[in-house]
């Protein structure tokens, strides 16, 4: 994993730079022209950690989306509101589609799946 590198001469940050002739990655200071060869070719690594039970992110604004279908066949378990927006989506780690519901009560926004 790469870390921030600092100049040995002036303590400013070193930035990745390519030496096209030698085909080497360098770290160069923009202040004093100090350069050093990189010990690793990885400049940046973004690691994303997901929890096993991660729920598909559903924004509460979904309830105000006029393009999504609504139903009065279900009631919200939290506020007992008689209307919900619903849509289908895939969830990570599961096969097939899952039916998601979002309560249409603006002060609630509870989400559940069938």
TrEMBL record:
<dbReference type="InterPro" id="IPR012164">
    <property type="entry name" value="Rpa12/Rpb9/Rpc10/TFS"/>
</dbReference>
<feature type="zinc finger region" description="C4-type">
    <location>
        <begin position="7"/>
        <end position="32"/>
    </location>
</feature>
<comment type="function">
    <text>DNA-dependent RNA polymerase catalyzes the transcription of DNA into RNA using the four ribonucleoside triphosphates as substrates. Component of RNA polymerase II which synthesizes mRNA precursors and many functional non-coding RNAs. Pol II is the central component of the basal RNA polymerase II transcription machinery. It is composed of mobile elements that move relative to each other.</text>
</comment>
<feature type="binding site">
    <location>
        <position position="32"/>
    </location>
    <ligand>
        <name>Zn(2+) 1</name>
    </ligand>
</feature>
<dbReference type="GO" id="GO:0006283">
    <property type="term" value="P:transcription-coupled nucleotide-excision repair"/>
</dbReference>
<feature type="binding site">
    <location>
        <position position="7"/>
    </location>
    <ligand>
        <name>Zn(2+) 1</name>
    </ligand>
</feature>
<keyword id="KW-0863">Zinc-finger</keyword>
<feature type="binding site">
    <location>
        <position position="103"/>
    </location>
    <ligand>
        <name>Zn(2+) 2</name>
    </ligand>
</feature>
<feature type="domain" description="TFIIS-type">
    <location>
        <begin position="72"/>
        <end position="113"/>
    </location>
</feature>
<dbReference type="GO" id="GO:0003676">
    <property type="term" value="F:nucleic acid binding"/>
</dbReference>
<dbReference type="InterPro" id="IPR001529">
    <property type="entry name" value="Zn_ribbon_RPB9"/>
</dbReference>
<dbReference type="GO" id="GO:0000419">
    <property type="term" value="C:RNA polymerase V complex"/>
</dbReference>
<feature type="binding site">
    <location>
        <position position="108"/>
    </location>
    <ligand>
        <name>Zn(2+) 2</name>
    </ligand>
</feature>
<keyword id="KW-0539">Nucleus</keyword>
<dbReference type="InterPro" id="IPR034012">
    <property type="entry name" value="Zn_ribbon_RPB9_C"/>
</dbReference>
<dbReference type="GO" id="GO:0003899">
    <property type="term" value="F:DNA-directed RNA polymerase activity"/>
</dbReference>
<feature type="binding site">
    <location>
        <position position="76"/>
    </location>
    <ligand>
        <name>Zn(2+) 2</name>
    </ligand>
</feature>
<keyword id="KW-0240">DNA-directed RNA polymerase</keyword>
<feature type="binding site">
    <location>
        <position position="10"/>
    </location>
    <ligand>
        <name>Zn(2+) 1</name>
    </ligand>
</feature>
<dbReference type="GO" id="GO:0008270">
    <property type="term" value="F:zinc ion binding"/>
</dbReference>
<feature type="binding site">
    <location>
        <position position="79"/>
    </location>
    <ligand>
        <name>Zn(2+) 2</name>
    </ligand>
</feature>
<dbReference type="GO" id="GO:0005665">
    <property type="term" value="C:RNA polymerase II, core complex"/>
</dbReference>
<comment type="similarity">
    <text>Belongs to the archaeal rpoM/eukaryotic RPA12/RPB9/RPC11 RNA polymerase family.</text>
</comment>
<dbReference type="GO" id="GO:0001193">
    <property type="term" value="P:maintenance of transcriptional fidelity during transcription elongation by RNA polymerase II"/>
</dbReference>
<dbReference type="Pfam" id="PF01096">
    <property type="entry name" value="Zn_ribbon_TFIIS"/>
</dbReference>
<feature type="binding site">
    <location>
        <position position="29"/>
    </location>
    <ligand>
        <name>Zn(2+) 1</name>
    </ligand>
</feature>
<keyword id="KW-0804">Transcription</keyword>
<dbReference type="GO" id="GO:0006367">
    <property type="term" value="P:transcription initiation at RNA polymerase II promoter"/>
</dbReference>
<dbReference type="InterPro" id="IPR001222">
    <property type="entry name" value="Znf_TFIIS"/>
</dbReference>
<protein>
    <recommendedName>
        <fullName>DNA-directed RNA polymerase subunit</fullName>
    </recommendedName>
</protein>
<comment type="subunit">
    <text>Component of the RNA polymerase II, IV and V complexes. Interacts with NRPD1.</text>
</comment>
<dbReference type="InterPro" id="IPR019761">
    <property type="entry name" value="DNA-dir_RNA_pol-M_15_CS"/>
</dbReference>
<dbReference type="GO" id="GO:0005730">
    <property type="term" value="C:nucleolus"/>
</dbReference>
<keyword id="KW-0862">Zinc</keyword>
<keyword id="KW-0479">Metal-binding</keyword>
<dbReference type="Pfam" id="PF02150">
    <property type="entry name" value="Zn_ribbon_RPB9"/>
</dbReference>
